[in-house]
Amino acid sequence: MTETGLRIAMVTTFYPPFNFGGDGVYVQRLARALAARGHQVEVIHDTDGYRALSGTTPEAPASDNGIPVHRLASNQPVLSSLAVQQLGQPALHRAALRDLLTDRFDVVHFHNISLIGGPGIWKYGTGVKLHTAHEHWMVCPTHILWRDNREICDKRRCLRCVLRHRRPPQLWRAANLISRNARHVDRFLMLSQSSADNHRRFGFTAPMTVFPSFLPKFEGGASETAKADQSQPYVLFVGRLEIIKGLQDVISAFSDLPAELWIAGSGNYESTLRALGEGNPKVRFLGRKPMHELQQLYRDAVAVVTPSRCYEVFPMVVLEAFREATPIVARALGPYPEIIEASGGGQLFTTAEDLRRALTHYIKNPAAAAADGQRGRKAFDRLWSEDVVIGQYFHEITAAARNRGLDDIARRAAKFATDANDELLNG
Hints:
This protein folds into two domains: about 5-215 and about 385-425, 3-Layer(aba) Sandwich (Rossmann fold); about 235-385, Glycogen Phosphorylase B (Rossmann fold), CATH 3.40.50.2000. Helices cover about 40% and strands about 15% of the residues. It contains 17 helices and 16 strands. The strands form three sheets. It has an eight-stranded mixed beta sheet with strand order 3-4-2-1-5-6-9-10, with helices on both faces. A six-stranded parallel beta sheet has the order 13-12-11-14-15-16, sandwiched between helices. Strand 9 (about 185-190), helix 7 (about 195-200) and strand 10 (about 210) form a beta-alpha-beta unit. Helix 13 (about 350-365) crosses helix 14 and helix 15 runs antiparallel to helix 16. The radius of gyration is 22 Å and the shape is globular.
């Protein structure tokens, strides 16, 4: 560790290999990026939630690339998770969390806290406190603003909705624990303006900062290579195969398009999607793929389609595509309009006709696809690459520490804030 490195805790429910989606991978990438820059990073995460939901217990080391990982585990994972889900407070791991977080870190960064401690965990720990909203959990008991498990939510009808999602109602939400405990957090980091707007619309009143997601420029030993020539061009979908991801709206478009649809992922909706694509040789299900294989799939695709029917926060698929200079075709919902406006790296659709038009544009005009893909790559380098975002990360810590009078933390954090805009540092 360098002399000025900070002590940083990552606190989250899911962390690989105890994770389902992108939030655990995001935390892992951030922890590794910070550790690589000389900071003393520790991860504190709950294994009970994953074990209760999956019924499995993966083998996992006590460290990740040299980063200590505190994997909290009880003998009763279902009871432990249900207690947090119902109370909104740390339960069986209360004492361990207090011991781990009190007077040990300069920065405590909360992520998905839904099953490790709920809003009550924000009281734990000392130093600068950050919280990244990876979903809409702070304003939605189902996390995704997908009302009655069938449509986008536009107003609160939470009791009926959670029952239709087959989840237990959360008693603590009636006690306003979110707003009561939010005062313990110095910065709420929202990964898109859309996410911040949705939180405000559904009653979250704490100040929020829109803070970019990121990826390393290279991952898993990959190197930049030219796109391979494809005798049969393909459009790529990457993600969980769930009804909310909207892939069912895409499959039918490939009945007569001069390209194939390659689908990388798995999920609960997979059997329905396979039935929709049955008999169509242009629709290929690839299953789940590791990142080193996905990178090549991204690179060689004519476009990546992201048709989510619900509000995403900031899908990592977009950055994975842009990193490989591949444009996206995205539903005009959630963060996608702001992503396209900032990057120029794709096209939006609203209707089935819009979707076909956008896909046809890239399939029949490889030069247009390449040009928009390069725009996406340039935006990635400028806005979402690791070096850029980590510099901004320390800007946020510096400002929060100064607001709290934590001058030593502010001074050390400022040494790592490399964003071109010095206004925040100089006051």
